[in-house]
Each structure stands twice: as structure tokens, then as C-alpha cells.
Amino acid sequence: NAGVTQTPKFQVLKTGQSMTLQCAQDMNHEYMSWYRQDPGMGLRLIHYSVGAGITDQGEVPNGYNVSRSTTEDFPLRLLSAAPSQTSVYFCASYTPGEAYGYTFGSGTRLTVV
Amino acid sequence: GDSVTQMEGPVTLSEEAFLTINCTYTATGYPSLFWYVQYPGEGLQLLLKATKADDKGSNKGFEATYRKETTSFHLEKGSVQVSDSAVYFCALSELSDKLIFGTGTRLQVFP
Q1: pLDDT tens digits, residue range B97-106?
Q2: Burial bucket for residue A88 (CB in 10 Å: 0-12, 13-18, 19+)
Q3: Which residues pair with A83 in a beta bridge?
Q4: Across the A/B interface, how many CB contacts are shorter than 8 Å?
């Protein structure tokens, strides 16, 4: 199993550009989430989904959009990149009842200049 | 809302020393509690978990006990190794739909 796959691993954007961070999982997990990791802030939840067609906002949703058209994919869209969105982004997936908790991707390091 | 507070790092230890990383939480209900570990350049991996009061999670020599009376879930290891150097995150989940993380504690172990 590949687990949770995030692409790209690194990205540099100019202020105002848009882009989509991809996240795919092959474990048939119901729940998927996006987090951003910043120094001294831990991981903060951006958006999450409890199933295809269902999404909700987390702690820091502004400037980001998500959709969940399939169980496998949960892309994160930056509408108009800002330097404050420079961060490392992690996608995670989970199915209730699984013993080993959330499975995380290896992250996307995004720099906005 | 729910929150997790961890001790600030870095925690610097010599090999074979005893480790404690403190974690306390605030929750409205009865959350599950987790410790995740992040090695340099990698994503997060589940280290251990506990789902109810007085449960003890353990893995790779690490232990943590769910203390409802003190709302704590402190991580301990009796003898750390250089390979344990990483960032450790305490987290909680009330309804399994999302995790709430602490800010992380960096552990540095020297030979």
C-alpha cells in the first residue's frame, strides 16, 4: 500500500498565484484532513472531510478551498497565495475504529515569495 | 474549544537518560489521546494512544497514561537513545473526525 501520497513535495509560488496541493489515499479511509505546520505552532487543522461530498472548516480555513468528490482524493486549493501561507502542509486519513490512528503523508513544503 | 498544551522544548538529554514530556488537555467530553512522532524530514507517525481514563499506551519503550483527574497524558521513556531524537506531538480527538495537536516538543539525545 502506498498509504497517503502528497504532491508536490516542494513548491515555490509568487504572491497572488493559485495552485492545488494533491492528496490521495488508497486505504479506503472515510476521514481526510489537511494541516499546516509552522514553527512554534504545531499542526493546525485547515479543512477536513468525513466522507465523499462532505467537507468542513478547521481552525485556519481562510485562503484555502477543498472538495471531496471521491473517497481517495482530497485536494487543497490556494486561491491567491500570500507569504503567510508559507508552511509545510500535511494530509492525513483515517477510518474510525482503526487501531493505528491517522496516517499522514510526507508533506508539501510551500514557499510564497 | 478543545486544546492541548505541551512543554516547550527543546529537551536535551544524554543517551540512557529518563525522558518525560508533559502534556495536558482541555476537552468538553471524553477524548482519545495520542502521541505522534516526527523524525527529521518526515511526516507524523502514531507512537501510542489511549482511548479512556487510566488506559496506558505503550510502544518502543515509550509509555503514557490517560489521567482524567489531572487531564494529562505525559510521555515517558526509561532510557532514551540517539535514534529517539525527533519532535513529539501530543494530540486529542473527541469524535475521531479531527485531531487537535499541541505545539510539539523537540527531543535531542546526545551520545
Answers
A1: 788 999 999 9
A2: middle
A3: none
A4: 51
